[in-house]
Amino acid sequence: MLISHVRKFIYLKTYKTAGTSVEIYFEPWCLEPGTEMAPRHFREAAISQWGIVGARGFLNETWYHHMPSEEVRALVGKELWSEYFKFCVIRNPVDMVVSHFWYRLAPPVRELLAQADFLVVRKTFAEWIRLASLPMNRPIYTIDGSVAVDYFIRFENLEADLKEVCERTGVPWEPDLLGRYKGDYRVRNEHFTEYYTPAALARVVEELAWEVDYFGYS
Hints:
Low-confidence stretches: none
Mean pLDDT: 94
Helix content: 40-55%
Distance between the termini: 29 Å
Number of strands: 8
Strand content: 5-15%
Shape: globular
């Protein structure tokens, strides 16, 4: 998660939505100008008069990635929360769960499935999803069940929506600087709809029904 006191925005990082790529793009506006920092997956929290960068991959931090909006508001106060522009990224839950599947696989299994017939991949996914803990993004962008952010970037419309956020926050839009992080986990190109048996699809639609309905995904 990010807070920029310079551009007055709050970024809430959701699961499996290109969240790290978006976070790293806006990160410089939360740090002292001139700070030299190579983009990286893991980092400790950075707190200064310029803003806050939540920790990525470090435990026991006050500010951390995937913080629920209720926790962020409690720390910054309702006045600042109301004043700052708040945004996050959302993604079709059916696609998001496939991304989560690849992310959670042990590396040897991922290597095997990269070369396997897709019927084997589909069967493995069907078995995995029966008991898997699915990523829940709703607590990140809602408070007391109500949407608490000002703008949703859609993963399916990432660059256009990022450009809109940049215009609203005064951050320059430079698409060549948008990195791609954690994308190497998903090693197959089949469309996400091909992974699903009726039972697998029913579980995702049931557990993530609010997101499917609210954002109009089919």
